[in-house]
């Protein structure tokens, strides 16, 4: 357990027993949102506390700002893309995800030096919609990519909606997810 902001936060470890694979299959993240099991667990840190632990609820006071760090096992000579999506945004959409944050052309693990394709913007779920899962997945690009995407800056931009992680990574020939994790968010009142 880690202590942060006078709260105890349980950290669930996924070891080599296939726990991550079991969780992603049980949650219907693989197959569907991802077509392959990631190699590593992504560590998402808000306010110097590791919070994302395969489905735990993160309070709005943390997720309303982008994380302080996103960590995984990068090769310092390769480029990566980080994708945050709400995978429960709208089950009626053909592609049910909502883009929350996409950063491409990250050299090694220097995630904050990458190219913002979709700026960080998590919208709180509607009061009646229950918990929403935020999937964080990191793909190895290999080389730098010339992304042909409109840069999205506003939280309520409709271009964030009806997104597919798989279609996006296939478009740019990213094959295997390097790392992943997810957390849940729920209605708590208006984000200021």
**What's the number of helices?**
3
Query: How far do the termini sit from each other?
Result: 29 Å
Task: Give average pLDDT, whole number.
Answer: 80
* Proportion in helices: under 10%
| Major β-sheet profile | 6 strands, mixed
H/E series: EEHEEEHEEEEEHE
Query: Which structural class should the secondary elements be placed in?
Result: mainly beta
* Poorly predicted residue ranges: 1-18
Please count the beta strands (DSSP E, at least 2 residues each). 11
Strand content: 25-35%
Radius of gyration: 16 Å
Shape: globular
Essential attributes:
three-stranded antiparallel β-sheet, 11 strands, mainly beta, disordered N terminus, 10% helix, 192 residues, six-stranded mixed β-sheet, 3 helices
Please summarize what this structure is.
Helix content is 10%, strand content 31%.
Word description of this protein:
The chain is mostly beta strands. The chain is 10% helix and 31% strand. It has 3 helices and 11 strands. It has helices spanning 19-26, 60-63, 165-171, and strands at residues 2-4, 7-9, 40-41, 43-46, 49-50, 69-71, 79-86, 98-107, 115-118, 132-142, 177-185. A 6-stranded mixed beta sheet has the order 3-11-10-7-8-9, with no helix packed on it. Strands 5-4-6 form a 3-stranded antiparallel beta sheet, with no helix packed on it. Strand 4 and strand 5 (49-50) form a beta hairpin. The model is unreliable at 1-18 (pLDDT under 50).
